[in-house]
Amino acid sequence: ETGVTQTPRHLVMGMTNKKSLKCEQHLGHNAMYWYKQSAKKPLELMFVYNFKEQTENNSVPSRFSPECPNSSHLFLHLHTLQPEDSALYLCASSQVVGGGGTDTQYFGPGTRLTVL
Amino acid sequence: GQNIDQPTEMTATEGAIVQINCTYQTSGFNGLFWYQQHAGEAPTFLSYNVLDGLEEKGRFSSFLSRSKGYSYLLLKELQMKDSASYLCAVEDSNYQLIWGAGTKLIIKP
Known about the structure:
The complex is a heterodimer.
Chain A: E1 4-7, E2 10-13, E3 18-25, E4 31-37, E5 44-50, E6 53-57, E7 64-70, E8 73-79, E9 87-94, E10 106-107, E11 111-115
Parallel strand pairs in A: 2-11
Antiparallel strand pairs in A: 1-3, 3-8, 4-5, 4-9, 5-6, 7-8, 9-10, 9-11
Chain B: E1 3-5, E2 9-13, E3 18-25, E4 32-37, E5 44-49, E6 53-57, E7 60-65, E8 70-75, E9 84-91, E10 97-99, E11 103-108
Parallel strand pairs in B: 2-11
Antiparallel strand pairs in B: 1-3, 3-8, 4-5, 4-9, 6-7, 7-8, 9-10, 9-11
């Protein structure tokens, strides 16, 4: 148990659907991250929140919309996705951003997303 | 551009030693991380190096040479449960983690 939970674990959606992914961390951290993991490709950083403020948005299409209501919760809202968006979506948290070893990231189990 | 290179796949025998290499070219350097990821599971933190040299943690050790842009993860006394992907990641000058594609390690009896 890593202290970072994600729901749902699996999601199948059509291209016209709207769904949300949820992440919660129980580690008292102040930074949270969304990553996309596709087979045999490096982890792709999507969004970073530090003390509830978004600090990074790595050219992610607008059909992905993050929300961070507090330091413990992070959402990824999905709408009009494409089949190429099918992947494992991982949430992570760290104590802070840019803290040397204290910004070690701890990951949730991920949501396996399939877009039909 | 920023780049992390590591072998795609390695095979080793139970009880043996294996070394997984990682080379990097990044905009700045604020540390190098190794993570282990079993199939279908979350990546879990193994080690962090920011200074040159060897860090030992039980059966696992990690080495860093900043001048060469090089690191390795050394796994001793391999066990079947060590079969997993091993991810190398470098924190750049913007404190973003740049990730390698991972090395899939297969352990044979």
